[in-house]
Amino acid sequence: MATRDVVFPAGRHALYEQHRYSAAVRSNGLLFVSGQVGAREDGSPEPDFEAQVRLAFKNLNAVLDAADCTFADVIDVTVFMVDPDTHFAKAWEIAADYWGEAPYPTATAVGVTWLSGFRFEIKVIAKLPEGAEGAAVQG
Name one GO cellular component term (predicted). Predict the structure, then answer.
């Protein structure tokens, strides 16, 4: 079995160890990023919704940066929201601060009933820059 080429940001939050998953995996020129939430360093949710969305993007950007990517390299986005009728407009307004200029990545928004105490989660697939395939890192 091949070793996964995993990526973790510096100062990673405790959720990776608590729930046994990698922040991202590089494969065939792509970066597959696990869902990022507005988790504080100890893994607890940021209580304010707007601050939680901003922290989710900050955590996402830290993972992208660890793989030598930026949001400009993102080609596909999936967001999950608890109670999207209440939160979608505000989340999308905040996302615009991080999204960058057109052309935009593809995007799918999914309403869910549970996110383990969080209300917003974002997962992405990014194209790795040329030469960004790294050596496997132990999680």
Answer: cytosol
Burial class for 46, CB neighbours closer than 10 Å (0-12, 13-18, 19+): buried
Tens of pLDDT along the chain (139 residues) come to 568 898 988 876 677 677 777 889 999 999 999 999 999 888 899 999 999 999 999 999 999 999 999 999 999 999 999 999 999 999 999 999 999 899 999 999 999 999 999 999 999 999 999 876 654 444 4
Rounded to whole angstroms, how far apart are CA atoms 43 and 96? 25
φ/ψ (deg, to 5) at 57: -65, -35
Select from 45, 64, 53, 65 the least CA-distant residue to 90: 53
Q: Spell out the domain ranges in the chain.
A: 5-127
> 5-127 falls under which CATH superfamily?
RutC-like (3.30.1330.40)
pTM: 0.88
Q: How many CA atoms lie within 13 A of 114 on its CB side?
A: 1
Pair of tokens at residue 119: 């209300």
